[in-house]
Amino acid sequence: EVVEITVGTDEGSELVFDDPHYRVRRDRVRLPSGRVVDDYHVGVLEDYALVVALTAGGDVVLTRQWKQGVRRATLELPGGKLDEGETAVEAAARELREETGFVAPRLELLASLDVDTSKAANRGHVFLGREAQQLHPPEAHEMEAPEVVLVPAHGVPGLVERGEVRAAASVAGLLLALARA
Questions:
Q1: What is the full DSSP assignment across 146-159?
Q2: Which residues have CB under 8 Å from 48's CB, separation 6+?
Q3: For residue 163, is pLDDT > 50?
Q4: CB within 10 Å: which end of the chain, N or C, has fewer?
Q5: Which residues of 46-75 are buried (b: 16+ CB within 10 A; e: fewer)?
Q6: Which residues, at least 6 apart from 71, have a Cβ–Cβ distance to it below 8 Å?
Q7: Residue with the larger pLDDT of the pair 132 and 20
Q8: pTM attached to this predicted model
Q9: Given 1, 4, 142, 161, the catalytic residue
């Protein structure tokens, strides 16, 4: 049986909050029922890139750092937002280098993921880097003081199962990389 899905229509948007760390737009949406929602709020965030970096010894490079949104230190893939004019692969290489001091000779795109299809308009681009090696210590920034954590690839599923890695894009990236590697 084929089910026809009727979608809403975008009736217009306006930026209602514009800050260097967060932007919000208010959308006017006409639902399939004909009802109009005047105040549907959506986060307008930059795309970001994450890297699953594998060392020659079979370790996965992770970072532990403070994340204000969840108000705790998290264990995640290295990554961050794309700067203006930067491609996803350029951002991935830069973030890997800045947050961990590691470089990977080649980065392969695993997936581009919608972050939160209801409340955000950005994408996370997940890359796999093999033969990663550390060339220098991580760089500390105002909001970040990353600690590099190396985990044997075979130990990654346990980290996810125990809730030690909980960021959705990091979990997806790790699972995609393990399936590929």
A1: -EEEEEEGGGHHHH
A2: 79, 80, 81, 82, 91, 122, 123, 124, 125
A3: yes
A4: N
A5: ebbbbbbbbbeeebbbbbebeeeeeeeebb
A6: none
A7: 132
A8: 0.87
A9: 142
